[in-house]
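Sequence design from tokenized structure. All designs in this work follow the same two-part layout: the structure record, then the generated sequence. An example of the structure record is given first.
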């Protein structure tokens, strides 16, 4: 039974953290430009991960690792997250007041 409770707690944390992320992004978009907000979020996350790697003694910047990570990093950061960052700003501009789901990134 404790394993089942741990799994339920993990799912609960996923729902709360993931759900609150989108809420706080919406709130923060009122005070920051879209790409500045994304830059701050990812820079902070990157610095935290680098500190964790340094504390564990891992080498984070080997040429092989940087080369293998470049393609996926460019796709995720510049294409996927740019669309997710611009999408919520476009919902309010939709005809009829912005109800409904956000526009897909390619329809901007």
């Amino acid at each position: 039974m404790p394993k089942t409770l741990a799994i339920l707690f993990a799912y609960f944390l996923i729902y709360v953290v993931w759900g609150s992320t989108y809420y706080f992004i919406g709130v923060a978009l009122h005070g920051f430009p879209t790409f500045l907000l994304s830059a701050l979020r990812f820079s902070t996350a990157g610095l935290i991960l680098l500190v964790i790697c340094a504390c564990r003694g891992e080498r984070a910047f080997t040429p092989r690792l940087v080369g293998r990570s470049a393609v996926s990093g460019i796709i995720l950061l510049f294409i996927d997250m740019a669309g997710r960052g611009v999408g919520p700003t476009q919902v309010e501009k939709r005809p009829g007041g912005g109800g409904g789901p956000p526009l897909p990134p390619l329809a901007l």
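The chain has a mean pLDDT of 77. We note this feature because it recurs in several other targets discussed in the main text.
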